Structure formats: structure tokens, C-alpha cells
Amino acid sequence: MTQVNQVTNVNTATPSAISPEWVRIDLADRSYDIVIGQNLLGQADSYAKLPRAAAALIVSNTTVAPLYEAALQQALAPHYATVHTVHLPDGEAYKDWVTLNTIFDTLLSRACDRKTVLFALGGGVVGDMTGFAAASFMRGVPFVQVPTTLLAQVDSSVGGKTAINHPMGKNMIGAFYQPQRVICDLSVLQTLPPRELSAGLAEVIKYGPIYDMAFFDWIEANIEALKACDPQAMAYAVKRSCEIKAHVVGQDEREAGLRAILNFGHTFGHAIEAGLGYGEWLHGEAVGCGMVMAAHLSEALGLIDAAFVKRLTQLIVRAGLPIRGPVLNAQDNAGQYLALMLHDKKSVAGDIQFVLIEGPGKARVSAAPEAMVRAVIDRCCA
After folding, report:
1. Which domains are assigned to the chain?
2. Are 216 and 224 contacting, i.e. CB atoms less than 8 angstroms apart?
3. Residue 68 pLDDT > 70
């Protein structure tokens, strides 16, 4: 697979400052920039040249808002006469219709119009819900992603996937709707709990096996710096992850083919999330475990060897992520996984489609024999 520009060595000594860098998502009239740097969230210049409007709405949650909402309000004040706010409950369990309606209720009660700009201030749940609200309100209003978790900065805020969950499946109701800009302020990652940071590292790690083994090598060499949230290491990890996703999304915005490889680990991972109940495991934890399961399936199909499975598994362990799947049904655990995975959006005519590694740095999407999938689930679950 064609590679974009790579850097394999980064000085991880903490610098006095990290200059902002830009990654462009090239989608014709829907193109936009990802801006990556330190202390961007509270700078008015970060939001210059966005669509003009009388009002903006900051959508955040009860955890993030006390930390960063005031700074964002102040930064937006020169650009919008009125800056409204709404706070959602925190957690994947609230990524549903009821919570989504809280955003619509706020927009309507404040007499917002179709030029109102929404700002998603939070992690993946806030970003997904704000984007879906923006896609739906008055058939589409502009929105900006201001992600505050590593997972959101390297994955969910980029590429225009917006959604809410359904009890039968994750992200089943949503739309492809691109933001106007993504502001990745590396400084906010310093406040992340270790568990959230590890969850974000799962989405960083996935880019290696599916696309860029030089990046995978770099992650292995710098995993301790990443876990310590070293600014220089984190800046490179976020930028490289966004470069890869931008390249893939630029070729396949609506996941008709290539973009599906970005779901490595997600077929198993989404089943874990739905089976346990949303929020029991963090999304990145489920993806980390799901990557191990998908690697074992790739090995069973003869696509990769046991040594690569071991190498990937060891890195996931070093990142602080689980590698053993939970038992979702004591009577027929594999059957429960299979039933949940049938609802995966990649499924075709009742066949579950898996993102498989067909060699280091290369992935494909295909089905697998049910008996083989069952054996992998039985092998990989606690």
C-alpha cells in the first residue's frame, strides 16, 4: 500500500514550545485543516476564518466543561456575538437519542439559526454527538471539533463520522458530515487519567499494522514516552496518526472500500462494548483487545505468523490495554459475539466482515469461516 511521508526518529526531549502544524483533509469543497500544537484551545486565532454567524454553541460534558469551557468561550468571543453552552452527561452510556435531544433543545430554545456554529469540546462521545446534531439541525449547520482526549485527536474527530449508539449496536445511527476544522491542543492531554491515555494509544497503535510499519517501529521505541505524555512524542504520534487517516479518508470518504481498514480491531471491539453495556470498557480498551483477536484470526487464516501476533500483543500490553476478551455469555460466548458482530456496519448479506492483517503494514476486509471465528473467540476470552 502506498505510504505517505514518514519520520521514524523523533527527539523526545521536552522542548520549550512546539510550533503548530497542519494536516489537510483533502475533500474538494469539504476540505479542512487539522491544527496540532500546544495551548491552541484558548487562542482566538485558532478560530479565525471559520463560517460567520451571530451565535455559536459549545457542546461539552460535565467533566470537560469545568476545565476548558471558559477558555474556549473567551477565545470565541471576538468571533461571535453570543456563545451558548450545553453540558451533556459524561460517558458512552449517554450516547443516545435522549442526550442528543438535549443539544437540539438548546439550539431551538436559544433561537439558533442555520448559520450557528457548533463547537464539540470533549472526547469521542461529545464529538460524535455534536457532529450528528450539526448534520441534522436545520438539515446541516457548521461545526468544529475541539477534541480533549488522545483517542478523539488521533481518530474520532477526523474524517466526518458522526453517530449515536443503539442498544443493538454501536454507532448505528448517524451521518458522514465533515467539520470545518479540528483543533488538537496537545496541552489538554496532560489532564487525562492514565486509563484514558491508554485507550487513546489503541487508536494510535492500529495505524501501524494496517498501514505504516515504520510508525509501528517508532511506537514500540517510544511507548513509555507516550504513556508519560511526553510533549514531543505525543506531537509526532498525533500528527502521524492524522496524516494516515487524512490520506485514507481523502481517497474514501464514505467507507466504500479502503477506509474500512481503519476499523481494525473494531468488529470484535464493538461487540465487547455492546455486550458488556456501553461505558463498561472504554472504546480504546475494546479496540485494543479487538486487535489481538483480529490478529489471531489473521494468523488462523495464514495471513501473518505467530511472531507478529506476539509482537502486536506485547505492544498492546505495554500500552496498558487488555488483551483478553470478556465472557459475554457463559453458555455460548462465541455465539453471543457472533450475534453482536452481525450488526457491524461492515457486514454484507449476513456475512461478518473483518479487518485482517495480510502482512505487516497491509490490511484487507473479508469474511472468515464461522468455526474459525468461534475458535479465536474461545482462545482469546477470559
Report:
1. 21-192 (3.40.50.1970), 204-228+264-380 (1.20.1090.10)
2. no
3. yes
